[in-house]
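re: ur question from earlier - yeah i can do the single chain one, its not a big deal. heres the input i used so u can compare w yours
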Amino acid sequence: MAIVLLLGCAKVPITGRSQLNLMPESEMMAMSLAEYHGFLDSIPPLPASDPRVVMVRRVGQRLAAAATTFLGENNAADRVADFKWEFNVVDQSVVNAWCMPGGKVVVYTGLLPVTQDEASLALVMGHEISHAIARHGNERMSQAMAVQGAGMTLQVLASEKPSTATNLFLQSFGIGSQLGLLAYSRKQESEADKLGLVFMAMAGYDPRIAPDFWQRMAAQAG
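and the output i got, formated as tokens:
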């Protein structure tokens, strides 16, 4: 157990917080890819020619490049070593966006009237990308798997209880919920805020727009 805990310990870039990730990233990415394609099969993304998609992909590529450069320069390139970034938009009124392990990002059209501008969109996308880079979903899955039973792996759970494994995964990444309804702990949300602000600034966006955006979110959410 001591060896497992030691191997599972890591430090989040920028904040330096120690975290416990017991789920192999290879398993997380495999499940991520399956769930991501399943989601897009059920809710087809908007075409690449749509102006909203063009904007989301422009913002996403700038953020991904900034984050990758920063991590590479700070001995944390492994955080995105196997990421194959993709940015899609789905026509849903839900005010939400998420990023799965591997850099699979989906933005809902319902978010865009609240972001209103490209910098605010970068704020939200930077936050979601940061959850994936910080491996917050792995942390939550690790905690949930501990409840399922000591020694059970994600592969075993997926084979024996596929619906349970899928639900745990989706809950761990906030898929299907509204932006602002916590999928992560307060500590993780604050951490993603900090990383996201750094990445958006490095990508050329002004992080000082954050308070105005969150005031709009508060007003929208009542």
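Residues 75 and 85 are 20 Å apart (CA to CA). not sure if urs matches, ping me
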